[in-house]
Amino acid sequence: MTKTDSILSAFDDLNVWQRGDERAPHKPLLVLLALGRLQAGAGRLLPFNELEQPLSDLLEDFGPPRQSLHPELPFFHLQSDGVWELEEDPRVRQRQGSKNPLRTDLRKFGIRGGFPERIFTCLKEHPEVIRELARSVISSHFPESLHDAILSSVGLDMTGTSRNLRRDPAFRAAVISAWEHQCVFCGYSVQLDQADLGLEAAHIQWCQAGGPDSINNGLSCCAVHHQAFDRGAVTISDSSRILVSSRIHGAGMVQELFLALNGRELRPPARKAALPRQEYLEWHRKQVFRGAARD
């Protein structure tokens, strides 16, 4: 195994916190943020003060809905994976009843963290490995519909990176066919000869969270509603009604594309086997949907 291969494999099995099927993308988001800073020429060790707000923003935008955000947790716990290290300072106190550091102390004492020297040096000398590592991490933890938005948020330039997505190629065709070649939300349906244009298959429970490539875990969506579904702007109730987040706002076609859909019943699929499974819908409402549904 080459040095580059060993660096990539070190990030393959990040010890991501788990409780049931809850999402916890805190460590992957920190890794991607740090890779973006490295690519931009930052030093090896990054002050928590500089990472706290951008990491909080990433958790708000791409993490599961939570009452409070804790960017200090991945900053501290990524050490256990052997791909991150922190400056030690005896003045940093632990939260009562845990080993987690106080966020205020990480700020106060300017604690810095970053990739270990061997990893940082390899990535610095081989910029292409930064891109391959970023692609590997993001593909393991987020659906493809979110990749561009996340990479843009962390400032990563992925030019020249090959994609390596492990997907069942039959999934898209089966899902779109089961929903009669139209978006389940807005009814969009356009073909060029026999090819669907701008129509995609969305996983209800993401593959990265254990969701299968089965048609009862898929929805046929236009590109707009696929991204909206994966970002938590819309979801589906157990009674097959569309729920639109109260956090949606905007101008132009926001009424037609979103607000008018709230409460609308989903037209059933052509194949009964494609009816969304309740457990997948429940996962999406708990782990992806943001805010309360509109009245």
How would you characterize this protein structure?
Helix 2 crosses helix 3 (48-62), helix 2 runs antiparallel to helix 7 and helix 6 (117-125) packs across helix 7 (127-141). The protein folds into two domains: 3-154, no CATH class; 169-287, no CATH class. With 295 residues, it is mainly alpha-helical. The chain is globular, with a radius of gyration of 21 Å. The chain contains twelve helices and nine strands. Strands 1-3-2 form a three-stranded antiparallel β-sheet. The mean pLDDT is 92. The protein has helices at 3-10, 26-39, 48-62, 72-77, 103-108, 117-125, 127-141, 147-154, 169-178, 223-231, 254-257, 278-287, and strands at residues 45-47, 85-86, 112-114, 191-192, 195-196, 199-203, 218-222, 234-236, 242-244.
